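Cont'd.
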Amino acid sequence: MSDDGVNHTRRRLIGLTAGMGAVGGAFVAWPFLASWVPSARAKAAGAPVEINISKLEPGQMLSVEWRGQPAWILNRTPEMLDKLPGMVDLIVDPDSLESIQPDYAKNKTRSIKEQYLVLIGICTHLGCVPLTKLKPGLAEGMEADWRGGFFCPCHGSKFDLAGRVYKNVPAPTNLVVPPYHFATDTLIVVGVDPSMSIHGAEGAKNMNKKMKENLSGSKG
Amino acid sequence: MQKLLEQSLDWVDARYPVKKVWDEHLAKYYAPKNFNFLYYFGSLALVILVIQIVSGIFLTMHYKPDANMAFASVEYIMRDVEWGWLIRYMHSTGASFFFIVVYMHMYRGLIYGSYRGPRELLWIVGMVIFVTLMAEAFMGYLLPWGNMSYWGAQVIISLFGAIPFIGDWLAEFIRGDFVIADATLNRFFALHVAALPLVLVGLVFAHLVALHKVGSNNPDGIEIKQNKGPDGIPVDGIPFHPYYTVKDIMATVFFLILFAAVMFFVPELGGWFLEHDNFMPANVLQTPPEIVPLWYFTPYYSILRATTTDMIYVLYGVTVAMAILTVISVKDIRAKGATVVVAAVVLVALNILQPKLWGVILMGSSLMVFFGLPWLDRSPVKSIRYRGWMFKTALTIFIVSFFVLGFLGTQPATGLNTRIAMVGTVLYFLFFLLMPWYTTFDKTKPLPERVTE
């Protein structure tokens, strides 16, 4: 016994017991917390989708559901493409350095084939679906100097015809380009990179791995 | 018969402190005798809590927390379940009335200084209840799986994505999927009907325990316990039961009449209590033209939306001005140094972090500042009755800002609206940030010995 009547051995053992209890508590808490992450079923539901674009005329846009999100395919006219270089001054990130897209879409048109723009139609601000305002000027109810693109009604973010975000709007980065490739000239597969489009076990394994990596980045 | 009852009570009392609890919290709990209209809202909040729990339990008997069935099951409740429409309208009307009552209850605390010592902890527990209630309301709002439910949840959960490094992971963790999905609905259901109500009831219990430890404040903001009669009972105190129980029952009757009027005649209240966009099922591919939360969240939503690139410059100004003011006012050299360091860190953070994240920070702070009230207020008096023009002006500006922000939160975030929301946001925060100064310099009136009639 010590001078002040405190049994230090007991105190130490009590502390040790409490500490072990806390460790045990943490172990018990783990399964409960882990149960909140996307389940195997939710991950499996992220399968790629195939879109036939043979009937998509220049200037038209298609919206399909991929992983519960809208994926857009826009067939850009030459006039639309001609406008892109002139947008640079209005755009926050014209070279897509801060934005999310596969390396093969990190170029001036943000696409594999210049003509076809593939985007996740979810605003990078807070996840609304922007409205499609492809026609320039007043035609779409925008201002007279509008050059065509996308407009998010929630908080007023604007994007050009390559999904690049305008300056002084709330969205911080360009619209996300999902992984995709052209299976044939008229068939786009959203959700699979060109490098992983080989069939067979090896390809599928690669795809799953790559998709997992991409998942964290593909949200608005 | 009478004798048998008394004997039964004695039998129980020998095993459970029935009489002691009754006396301590009702029959011999002395509350100030000068309570006014605003003091009804505490007990009314309790009434609504019961309404929400009872109507909620009965809704779960028919509702299906499944993304494919949720919307239809709510329509089923509305059309096919006997009296289902009444139970659902009771719950939806109750949600809005809960916030009306709680906002009135908080306003009461604000003007009579009920947050001041010795009631700091009482106030803090109350604020935790308020924040929990907001989470409860937010999660409940997803359950009907209407389009506004879906996109409202999408926007609010995406807020977590603004946090650097862990944000995207955290948002995914909360959703349990890559978008708002069945997993999200299912877990929000569990939290809304089980976890958070349990927490709320526990917190309300703690709120009452804290209240009965320190005693109620009153419209004069003086402590009745400092003036006790020879019997040890505060001379300005009256037993809670029967005096205030009767009074509260009368208030409850009037309240329920009003409640029933809304519930039966205007349950949607023109889109304010039930939003029109929510009568369409959730659509993953189609955002409503304007995402608007229910009215009780709109002031905070406005603050979130007001924070654009331009707002960052305003925040620079506010930070520098507050730092200069603090350095001039505090005497301690270390406090001066600390102020400069904190201000410098904020300025650097304003440069580095995205406006999107600052929106989230400001929205969170707009709630968190309430926790600081007991220490920000330096006035020698508690009640607005004895305060000077400075506090009254500041409070008026704050209340106006709160309502203006609330209104703007329901409107499109266009140019002028955003500008006004920015001004409103700054004024909202200045009420708290400048409080140590204006409550110090304000000229107060002398406090009375006894409570006034």
